[in-house]
Design goal:
Elements (H helix, E strand, L loop, with lengths): L1 H9 L18 E5 L2 E4 L5 H15 L1 H6 L19 H7 L16 H19 L2 H6 L7 E6 L3 H9 L13 H4 E3 L6 H6 L8 H9 L2 E3 L5 E3 L3 E3 L25 E3 L5 E3 L16 E2 L7 E2 L3 E6 L1
Parallel strand pairs: 8-11
Antiparallel strand pairs: 1-2, 2-12, 3-12, 4-5, 6-7, 8-9, 9-10
Keywords: Lipoprotein, Signal
Protein name: Gliding motility-associated lipoprotein GldJ
Pfam families: FGE-sulfatase
Amino acid sequence: MKLLLRLALLIGGFPLFAQQITPPTPPNTVQVGTNLYVDKTEVANLHWLEFLYYIRRDSGEAYYRQMLPDTSVWVQRTLVNPQTPPAELIQNYLRAPQYRTHPVVGISYEQAQAYARWRSRAVNQAINQPRELAALGLQGRRIVVEYRLPTEEEWMQAAAGTRYIGRHPYGFREKEFLVRASKRIDPQQAWEGLADPRPSRKAFSRSLRKTYLPLFQVVASLPADLHMAPEFPLSTTEGLQNSLGLLHSIGNVAEMILGPGQAKGGSFMHPLEASKISDMQRYVGPAPWLGLRLVASVQVE
C-alpha cells in the first residue's frame, strides 16, 4: 500500500490534502447558508438606473425600453388626499435624486429575472480582473457569482435570521419593533381628524396610550377605525435591521420570490397582520408595493 501511494504521488496523482478555498462574500450581502448569500437591502432605484444605463449602451434601445419600470403603478395607491400626489411619484420616483436610494417598484417578474442575469454577468466580469483576484489571493482562479430571486424557504430563512418564527413571526422581538402610539402621534391632532361620530377626546387618548405601532413601513391600525398608512417606501438604507443585518425584511416593499405572482414580507400598503414571515402576497403584474431582493451563490473554480 505504501509503495502504491508513493508511485501515485510520483506520477502526478492527487495530493493527500486538497487546498480549501473560501469564496469571497459578494458586496452588500450576508451569508445565510452554505454558499448562499442575500442582499442586505432591497434593490434600489439607483441599482436599476445603473442596469438601464448599461443595457442601453450594450443591448440597444429596444431592450432598454423593455426593462423600464412601469411608473404608472402609483395610481394604484388607495390613500385619500395624499400629501404626495400620484403625478409627483409617476414623474420623479424612479429618477429624482431624493428617491435614488428608495426601492425600485413597477417591475415585472421577467424584468427582475433579467436584472439578476445582468448583475451576475457584471459582477463576474468585474471580480475576475487580475488585480481583483490578486487582492483576494485567488490568482489563477475564476470566481463564478450567480444572482437570482430567492425561493420561499430561502427568503424565510433570511427574514427570520436567528429568531424562531413560531415565537417571533416577524423575525423581531416585540420590544424591538413596537412603540406606544402616543409617542408617535399627537392625540389632539389625530382626534380632530376623525370623522363623526367620533369617541370623546378623553376616551380616544386613553385608547391611544394602550395602542402600539410597528416601526416597520406597513399600515398600522389605530383606535376608532383609524389607520396610519405610509405614502411610499422608505430609503433602502434606513430602517430596522433583523438579527442577520437585513434592512426592511418586513414592510417597505414586498419582495418577489421564485415563481411568478409570489412575494413575501408585506409592504407600505399592507397591514402588519398580513406581513408576517409566513404570509404570502400575490400579484398579477407591476405594483407600487412590489420590489425585490436577490440571493447569490459563489463558486471558485
